[in-house]
Amino acid sequence: MNHPTLRHLAMLLGGTLLSLDSQAADLNARDFFGAPSGTSLGVLYLPASRYDDFHGPADTTGKADLKVNAVAYRQVFFTDICGTLCTPQFILPFADINARLPGASQHTGESGFGDPQVGGTLFFINDPASRTYSGLLSLITVPVGEYHSKNPDVSPGANRWGATFVYNYTQGIGEKWVLEANLEAQLYGTNDDYFGSDLKQDPLYRLQAFASYDFTPATYGALRLIHADGGALRINDQRIDDTHKRYTQVGFEVGHWLDRQNQLMFSLSQNIAASNGYAGTDALLRLVHVF
User: Residue 25: its pLDDT value, please?
Assistant: First the structure.
């Protein structure tokens, strides 16, 4: 492949698969609240993304768009087997992806199971009385999802190992407010079958912050802010220009406990700034069941 072809292919991947990686790692308010040892949670996520714009030189036509409908199941176990509270867990995703890639003349799409994640959170602070928590979430992405080497940019799987690390600090303020800060690093292995080449990606770093408020004992609302930076691409160790991503996203969410065992949450987020990536709206419906 010559240099323009490599650059164009990498720009496509940076706009599609990376946006899916970020969506999968998005947190919600109060995710780091602890629970008694022996508790387990089943969590069903129904995310949908509608990106009608691509910000960056790869989209020469101005017609790029991306639509993702997905479902993911997450199982979380609370235990003190680690000597302190920890939460072994796994995530199983399924995605349907349709996109007009930057510079492309028509849409393309794939659907199937994505790469599962396994890991957990190790708590450093677990004080339910003051709603003060702190912990490190570590997730390993296992490359067993559906991957199409002839259409990798919209494949549910990424054909590479990955690791996500999130350090959280959660602090209750008074009786109703909770403030949270999350520092995140997403690390990526090598995709050794990207149109016959090796694709590598620099780490993506993100700040995710939440301010939530209890309207009633069963209902809370939250404002969210996400800022991301990084993720530049290399093909066969050749760095590709204009693939370093930056974006800022703001949104809100509302969660309500239907009863003592079931919670329903809805969130909506919008990009307010983006560079070298898609921009648009993310919506999420989440159901939590306490076992």
Answer: 60
How far apart, in whole angstroms, are the C-alpha atoms of residue 282 and residue 273?
Answer: 14
Which residue shows structure tokens 């009608």? 52
Helices (H), 41-167: none
User: Looking up tokens 């809805």, which residue turns up?
Assistant: 266
For the chain, helix (H) and strand (E) counts, in that order, are 1, 17
| Chain segment 168-197, per-residue pLDDT in tens | 999 999 999 999 999 999 999 999 999 889
Q: Give the burial class of 10: count Cβ atoms within 10 A of its Cβ; 0-12 exposed, 13-18 middle, 19 or more buried.
A: buried
Pair 200, 219: CB distance under 8 Å: no
- C-alpha 240/C-alpha 232 separation (Å) is 7
Residues 6+ apart with CB under 8 A from 173: 179
3-class secondary structure, 154: helix
Residues 226, 204 contacting (CB under 8 angstroms): no
Helix (H) or strand (E) holding 7: helix 3-25
Angstrom distance (rounded) from CA 276 to CA 30:
31
Domains of the chain: residue spans and CATH:
3-290 (2.40.128.130)
Residue 215: name the closest of 261, 249, 182, 253 by CA: 253
Q: Is 256 helix (H, G, I), strand (E, B) or coil?
A: strand
Token pair listed for 186: 């997403």
d(C-alpha 5, C-alpha 193), whole Å: 16
Q: What is the mean pLDDT of residues 283-291?
A: 97
State both tokens at 210: 């939440």
